[in-house]
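Why does residue order matter? Because the sequence determines the fold. Keep that principle in mind as you read this record.
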Amino acid sequence: MTNSRSSVHWILVGILILSLGAVYAATLAPGLSWANNGADGGDFISAVATRGIPHPTGYPTYLLLAGVFGMIPLGSLAFRMNLFSAVCTIAAAIMVYCAVARFLAERRLSWLAGGIAAFAFGLSPLVWSQAVITEAYGLQTLLVALIVYLWSYGIDLKPGRLIIYDIVSGLVAGLALGNHLTSLLLLPVVFAMGGAITKEPSETPGRFQNRSRGWKINRASLARRFGALLAGLLVYLALPLRAMANPPVNWGDPVTLQNFLTLVSGRLYSGLVFSLPADYILPRLQVWAHLLSDQFGWLGLAIGIYGLLFSQMQGLKRIYPGLAWLFIVFSIFSIGYNSYDSDVYLIPAFLVAAILVGVGVLELVEWASRWRSWGGIITGIVILIGLIVPAVFHYPQVDASHDDRAENFGQAVFRSAPAQAIIFTQGDQATFAVRYFQYVLHQRPDVALVVANLMPYDWYRAGLAFTYPTLHVPVQADQDWSGTVIQANPGRPVCEVSYLQVAEISCH
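Structure:
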């Protein structure tokens, strides 16, 4: 890379950090938030604060990295966890820029195409929405983008660097699996990139010379990647180690092999995978199409399609199968996942779309530069403005800076609860909010929080008895666990709390 191109590279990285940082800071949730389907935030924050374990699959990679980031003495822990998502997403946008610039490295204006693709990705409403709240998807976006960057780096990889490349690629894949199990869908790309699996050209002369005669597999490279992947998966050992300390947030208590496998396999949610009723498939496809057009606007969508169909760069054909894989499998998974918030699984697919936007931009700016030397830059600026303008309309949609519902709910519950009350919670929003107030903010240690739908689990009842020694926890019950707990603790007031559109708090 020449000095001039290197300077442009670092200037663009700085612009991305400052501009996306300003946008995310303006829309960042200041504390605990339910914005952008962020109900799980209270669970993650409480798990980080108590060195505990959140809901399946335990998210050990997130817990370890967020725990380190949480040591920064800046605002509340909830604010720091929201900020962690923003920092991860900005880093992901930089990876998109670097990947596009490397994919198109032989072209003069590749830096411009990469920068525009990064802005389009970072300002897409779905990515933006997860950048301003506490969730695992900001980190997951970074890990996916890092794998795509490694893929771009491996296109012209020097043989002497293959061993390091294999180790880094496998390790990142293992850490990604430690953050979210959908990373399994990334593995075909991880094990194929960087020359580990290639087509051998035909040795037949004449018109058949361009035909492939088979696949060449570098077994040593694949073995190194698999070994490094297993090393990355060692982050899961953090879960039983944490559970041994009996933290108040200890989903599944994975100190036994059975409990560990139940937690990390995500068995609780396995029934949602590809279980969408047939009648909902067409509406979900319509939502998918709407989301795709909404991320980059019709201009960005048209440019991406143009880049896919009319790119003059022959080398891109090497990456199109991998791009197609990522786009298709994550789209299918999102469409078939029977959950109201399954759209977040489309982020890797939209990352692919952002890369294609970059390819289309490059074709257009180079075409314009043939007419005037400055025509390409002007065209790129016009396209960038056209892609940024929709962000103004997305701003209210993703803005979490004024969402105080979770904070108000937690405060209202603890104001209403009598001394020594047993608080039964229903639903993730209510449960995770009150946990945050007691376990993170250390409010109302006199009350006992009981998650009603977890009472049938032995591991939960054992943890409940350890967390609240004065609470009598029944060993068994017929069906009404809540009633059995109330009978076992006569004289203690009872509150029932939930949140569905509005707060429901009943104490007696």
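Residues 414 and 444 are 7 Å apart (CA to CA).
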